[in-house]
Amino acid sequence: MKLEVCLEALSDDILIARLVDLLGRSRGVEAELVAHLAEVDARRLYRREACPSMHAYATERLHLSDAEAYLRITVARLSRRFPVVLDMLADGRHHLSGIARLAPHLRDEDGEALLARAALLSKREIEHLIAEIAPQADAPALIRKLPAAPRSTAQPLISGPCLTSAAGSDAVGDALHEAGRDAGGDVGGQGAVAPGGSAGDDAGCESTRRPLQGPAPVAPAPSGRPVLTPIAPLRYKVQFTAGAELHDKLVRAQALLRRHIPDGDLAAVVERAMTLLLRELERGKFAAAASPRKTAAEVDPTPRSRHIPDPIRREVWERDGGQCTFHDRNGRRCPARERLEFHHVAPFGRGGDHSAANVRLVCTIHNAYQAELDYGAAFMAAHRRRGREDGGRASEGGGREAGWLVGGAARRAGSGAARRGWLGTPRRSALGTPLWTTGVQACMAVGAPVDAQRSQRL
After folding, report:
1. What gap in Å lies between CA 14 and CA 7, rounded to an integer?
2. Which of 1-5, 170-174, 177-181, 297-301 is most confident?
């Protein structure tokens, strides 16, 4: 493909502006595409194209993937009942995956209100909304041994209007997986797919059963991925496949906790284990302590090494809420809560101290970005290249390694040389003051605290 302009020659601001403009136009085109699919489906024009269904036409004639066909046909049929869907697609208030998840729960009397309520929500947030308006019963807590994997790929099993593959594949999109994963014989109480149809088939095709004519689009095949799904307000279904070692640990934990958990409930056992694990991780990551000996105010922030004193790490972590504190120029904060690092606003390599006011939490990506702003992209690239050549670990974060390298160089050359610009003129920090305005399958139902602990993992 030959572009009209050379993207490498565009400035950062112009490149972002062009991207936003293209995205807006693509949403309009997407809405028109869905509208056309709805009309073709209503007229059943796929028949004249030698296709037995709309799904076959979309995949064999329009060359859409199964995931693309499923999403667009589902939303197209829904748009016949709720035309506002097309406007929401065009202006970006909704996306195909979210609308497809909402489709089975939209009723004529309150469908538009629910669509408006779900506007601008992510797919995960829409799943929580669905759990609120259509709560499910708790999944039974159990452990079972999985059958051996088949040596050859099973043939698709046909049941009613819905075609479901017996062999899972990660190639299908998230929307397909979400709509059909319960058809794969999970331990949440639903039966396995079998010739002749089952409750699982109904679950996989429910969202596509619209009052329009024509067969439903192909239902997705389960992919076997771990599951963490809201099933009711503050209740979640957790499902994963474990090895024999983890199975044995769970059984041993159940036995040891019988006095405290007489029924051996898996969710209660796992919750206790997570509490202990988080306590250990938080102690290692930011020196969490039930009764700390010192506060940040009682510690000398003068750096004697790169190690940040424990009281300061605790204060910074609590102040920043365990979340990356990078803000863009519009004041939007990075949502990352994983791979967080302690970052010196005034770089450690240029004499920055360990005071709480000079230390912030940032994710690995923004730590690397800040290092490039502080020391220059060319310097950081050369540093990572040297690290790879030396056989060291040159992580993308780079800020920690860069701080050690530059800090050592600055101290060898003398602090005065660093102040005179021996390492270059510092650029304005992206974290500057103007931006600181503040083999075995296990399944169980758990409450919100366990899920909240999982989301706070380090």
Report:
1. 10
2. 297-301
pLDDT band at 140 (very low <50, low <70, confident <90, very high): confident
Q: Are 458 and 280 in contact (CB under 8 A)?
A: no
If you average pLDDT over residues 82-109, what whole number do you get? Answer: 96
Q: Per-residue pLDDT for 368 more than 70?
A: yes
Once rounded to an integer, what is the mean pLDDT over residues 402-415? 39
3-state secondary structure of 192: strand
Alpha-carbon distance of 330 to 141, in angstroms, equals: 46
Q: Which residues contact 178 (CB under 8 A, 6 or more apart)?
A: 101, 123, 127, 220
pLDDT beyond 70 at 27: yes
Residue 174 CB neighbours (<10 A): 16
CA distance 279 to 151: 43
pTM over 0.70: no
Phi, psi of 234 (to 5 degrees): 65, 20
- State yes or no: pLDDT of 150 exceeds 60: yes
* DSSP class of 29: H
Q: Evaluate if residue 154 carries a pLDDT over 70.
A: no
Distance CA 326, CA 373 (A): 13
Gyration radius of the chain's alpha carbons: 27
The β-bridge partners of 162 are 159
DSSP 57-79: IIIIIS---HHHHHHHHHHHHHH
Pairing mode, if any, of strands 235-242 and 340-344?
Answer: unpaired
Q: Token digits for 55? A: 């799904």
Question: Left if phi > 0, otherwise alpha if psi is -120 to 50, otherwise beta: which for 165?
Answer: beta
CA–CA dist 307, 299 (Å, integer): 13
Question: What is the rounded distance in angstroms from the CA atom of residue 298 to the CA atom of residue 295?
Answer: 5
Confidence class for position 405, pLDDT limits 50, 70, 90: very low
Are the CB atoms for 69 and 163 separated by under 8 Å? no
125 within 8 A of 155, measured Cβ to Cβ: no
* Cα 321 to Cα 439: distance, rounded to the nearest angstrom: 37
Mean pLDDT of the chain: 77
Residue 164 forms beta bridges with which residues? 157
Give CA separation, 180 vs 16, 98, 221, 345, in Å: 37, 15, 6, 48
pLDDT of residue 383: 86
340 to 226, 324, 327, 368: CA distances (angstroms): 24, 7, 15, 12
Q: What is the mean pLDDT of residues 342-366?
A: 93
pLDDT of residue 60 exceeding 60: yes
- Reference 141, options 74, 89, 188; nearest CA is 188
Angstrom distance (rounded) from CA 254 to CA 66? 43
